C-alpha cells in the first residue's frame, strides 16, 4: 500500500508541472523558428553570385555581402559625358578602294567559280561571308552567293536572301568582285564543284599555292566550314575590301531591318539614351568556360553534362579560369560595374541574351540595379516576333541591330558578335563599347567587402581604362581584324594637330590611353588563336581536305558566336 501511495504522489506532481514543460517547449520552438527566419541564408564562399543580396532603401541600393554593406547611390556620374568620347570626333571610317585597286571586270578570269559554305551562328557566318569576297578576289574568281550553315548546332534553315539583302550585296561589290546567285550549268547539266577545306588563317600565298592549282584544274570549287579561313594580316587594299563588305555591303533584309528599327524606336521613346548588354550567361557559355558560380552539385552536374559535347575539353580549374579573366561576369557583377562607371539606376537597358542560367533568380540583382530592363520579347508582341522566332539567326539579327544602335554597348564575352560589333562601332564613330577587364575585376569583386563604394568606383574606373571603346585603345595589328579594323580608321587633320597639344586623357597615343594595361587580345594568326578546341584537320598531299564534314562535335564558335 505504501508503494502505491508513493507512486500516486509522484504521478500527481508530474501532472502538475506538465503544463509548464509544454509552455517552455512551445516557447523554445517559437524562438528557433524566429531565429531560422531571421538568420542569413547559408553562403557558399566560392560563389560570386549567391553571396549577396541587393535591395532598395530610401532611394539607395544596398549590396549586402556577408556582414558588409555597399551603399550604392541612385545617381550616376556627372563629371564627364558617359555616352560618348570627345576624341571620337577626330576619327572616321575609311574603306574606299585605291585607284590602284583594279576593277573586277579587269581581273576576274573566266571559268573560275568559288563557292562557300559558312559555319556556325549568324555572326560567325558573317565573318565567312566577308572573307569569301576576299578569297574570290585573291583567286580572281567569280563568287557564288555564300551558302549558310543549316546543319550545325543552330539548325536554322534560313538561306542568304532571307537574312541579307542579296541584290545589294551583289551590286555594291560589283567593282571589287563579280558575284552571281548560282553556279551556271555546264553542258546543260548541273555542275558539281570540288569540295575542299581551307586551313585556318590561310594567307594570300596560301590561297595561291594550295587552292588556285585545284581551281585551275576543276574550274569550280566549294570551300566548306568557311570561318576564319583567311589570315588576319593582309595587304592594305584587301583589308579595306573586308571593311567595304562588312560595313557597307552586308545589309539585313527589309523585314529584319523594319523590326529592328521598331525595337530601337521603342527604346528611344522610353529614354534619350540606352545601354545594350550582350549578357552571354547561357548554360552553354558557362559550361564551356569551365567556371563555377556557386550552385553546388546541381550546377556542377548540369554544366558538366553540357561540357560533354566537346570531347576535347580538358578538366578545368574554375579558380584559375576566374583569376585569368576567362569567366563571364555574373549579371550582378555587370550591374555593379556599370553603376560604378557612372550609369545611374534610371537608365534604360536592353539585354540581348538567350536563356540565362538560373533564370529570374540570376537576373534579380541586375534588375535591382537597373529596373528599366528590356528585351526584344518585352518590347514586341508575340505576333510581331512570329516571323523571326523560329529562326535563331533572324532573332540574333534583331539583337544585332539594337546593340549596334545603342548609345553604349556592353559585352560580357569576346565571342563573334562582340568582336564584330566592337569593330563596327569603332568604324562608325567610336561609339562607347565596354568590355570588362575581367582579370582585374576578379580581384576587385573578391575584395569588395573591404572597401567603401567610393573606393570601389575609383578602382573600377582605373581598371576599365583601355576597355571602354575609346580611339587607339588597341594597337594596330592586335586582335582579330573584325574587332580592330585599324586599316579602315583614319585620323583627320584636326586630330593630328590636337593630339600633341594640351592635356588629354585619350586620343594622344596608345601608351597614354593604355598605360601598362592594354586589352589582352590574341593574335589570330598565331596557332593558339581559337575560341574553342583545336579543330582537327587532316590534309592530303596538297595540304587540303577534299571531303565534307560529318557528325562533328559542335565547335566553340558554333556555340558562342551569338
From TrEMBL:
GO terms for molecular function: glycosyltransferase activity. Pfam families: O-FucT (PF10250). It comes from the Eukaryota. The chain crosses the membrane at residues 20-39. GO terms for biological process: fucose metabolic process. Keywords: Carbohydrate metabolism, Fucose metabolism, Glycosyltransferase, Membrane, Transferase, Transmembrane, Transmembrane helix. Residues 513-529, 550-562 have a biased composition (Acidic residues). Residues 492-562 are annotated as: Disordered. PANTHER family: O-FUCOSYLTRANSFERASE 16. Belongs to the glycosyltransferase GT106 family. This is O-fucosyltransferase family protein. It comes from Populus deltoides. The lineage of its organism: Eukaryota, Viridiplantae, Streptophyta, Embryophyta, Tracheophyta.
Amino acid at each position: 500500500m505504501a508503494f502505491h501511495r508513493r507512486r500516486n504522489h509522484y504521478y500527481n506532481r508530474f501532472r502538475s508541472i506538465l503544463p509548464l514543460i509544454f509552455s517552455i517547449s512551445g516557447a523554445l520552438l517559437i524562438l528557433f523558428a524566429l531565429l531560422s527566419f531571421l538568420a542569413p541564408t547559408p553562403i557558399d564562399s566560392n560563389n560570386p553570385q549567391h553571396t549577396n543580396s541587393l535591395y532598395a532603401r530610401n532611394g539607395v541600393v544596398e549590396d549586402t555581402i556577408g556582414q558588409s554593406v555597399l551603399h550604392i547611390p541612385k545617381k550616376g556620374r556627372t563629371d564627364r559625358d558617359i555616352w560618348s568620347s570627345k576624341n571620337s570626333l577626330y576619327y572616321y571610317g575609311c574603306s574606299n578602294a585605291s585607284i590602284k585597286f583594279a576593277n573586277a571586270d579587269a581581273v576576274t578570269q573566266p571559268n573560275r567559280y568559288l563557292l562557300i559554305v559558312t559555319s556556325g551562328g549568324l555572326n560567325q557566318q558573317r565573318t565567312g561571308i566577308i572573307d569569301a569576297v576576299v578569297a574570290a578576289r585573291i583567286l580572281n574568281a567569280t563568287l557564288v552567293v555564300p551558302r549558310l550553315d543549316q546543319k550545325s548546332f543552330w539548325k536554322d534553315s534560313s538561306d542568304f536572301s532571307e537574312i541579307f539583302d542579296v541584290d545589294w550585296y551583289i551590286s555594291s561589290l560589283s567593282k571589287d568582285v563579280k558575284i552571281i546567285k548560282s553556279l551556271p550549268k555546264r553542258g546543260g547539266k548541273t555542275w558539281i564543284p570540288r569540295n575542299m577545306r581551307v586551313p585556318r588563317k590561310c594567307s594570300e600565298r596560301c590561297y595561291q599555292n594550295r587552292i588556285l592549282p585545284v581551281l585551275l584544274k576543276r574550274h569550280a570549287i566549294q570551300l566548306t566550314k568557311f570561318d576564319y579561313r583567311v589570315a588576319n594580316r593582309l595587304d592594305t587594299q584587301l583589308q579595306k575590301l573586308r571593311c567595304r563588305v562588312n560595313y557597307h555591303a552586308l545589309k539585313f533584309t527589309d523585314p529584319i531591318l523594319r523590326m529592328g528599327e521598331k525595337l530601337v524606336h521603342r527604346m528611344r521613346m522610353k529614354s534619350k539614351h540606352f545601354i545594350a548588354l550582350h549578357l552571354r550567361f547561357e548554360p552553354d557559355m558557362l559550361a564551356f568556360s569551365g567556371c563555377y558560380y556557386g550552385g553546388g552539385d546541381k550546377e556542377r552536374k548540369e554544366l558538366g553534362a553540357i561540357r560533354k559535347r566537346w570531347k576535347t575539353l580538358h578538366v578545368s580549374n574554375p579558380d584559375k579560369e576566374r583569376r585569368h579573366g576567362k569567366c563571364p561576369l555574373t549579371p550582378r557583377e555587370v550591374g555593379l560595374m556599370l553603376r560604378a562607371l557612372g550609369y545611374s539606376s534610371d537608365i534604360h537597358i536592353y539585354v540581348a541574351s538567350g536563356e540565362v542560367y538560373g533564370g529570374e533568380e540570376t537576373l534579380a540583382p541586375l534588375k535591382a540595379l537597373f529596373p528599366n530592363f528590356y528585351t526584344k520579347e518585352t518590347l514586341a508582341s508575340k505576333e510581331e516576333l512570329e516571323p523571326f522566332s523560329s529562326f535563331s539567326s533572324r532573332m540574333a539579327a534583331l539583337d544585332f541591330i539594337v546593340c549596334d544602335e545603342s548609345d553604349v554597348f556592353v559585352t560580357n564575352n569576346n565571342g563573334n558578335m562582340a568582336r564584330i560589333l566592337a569593330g563596327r562601332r569603332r568604324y562608325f564613330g567610336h561609339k562607347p563599347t565596354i568590355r570588362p577587364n575581367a582579370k582585374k575585376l576578379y580581384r576587385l569583386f573578391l575584395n569588395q567587402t573591404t572597401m567603401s563604394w567610393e573606393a570601389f568606383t575609383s578602382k573600377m574606373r582605373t581598371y576599365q581604362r583601355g576597355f571602354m571603346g575609346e580611339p587607339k585603345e588597341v594597337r594596330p595589328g592586335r586582335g582579330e581584324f573584325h574587332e580592330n579594323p585599324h586599316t579602315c580608321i583614319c585620323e583627320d587633320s584636326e586630330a593630328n594637330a590636337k593630339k600633341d597639344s594640351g592635356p588629354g586623357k585619350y586620343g594622344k597615343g596608345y601608351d597614354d590611353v593604355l598605360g601598362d594595361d592594354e586589352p589582352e587580345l590574341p593574335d589570330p594568326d598565331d596557332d593558339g588563336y581559337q575560341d574553342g578546341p583545336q579543330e582537327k584537320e587532316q590534309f592530303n598531299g596538297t595540304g587540303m581536305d577534299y571531303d565534307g564534314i560529318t557528325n562533328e562535335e559542335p565547335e566553340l564558335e558554333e556555340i558562342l558566336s551569338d
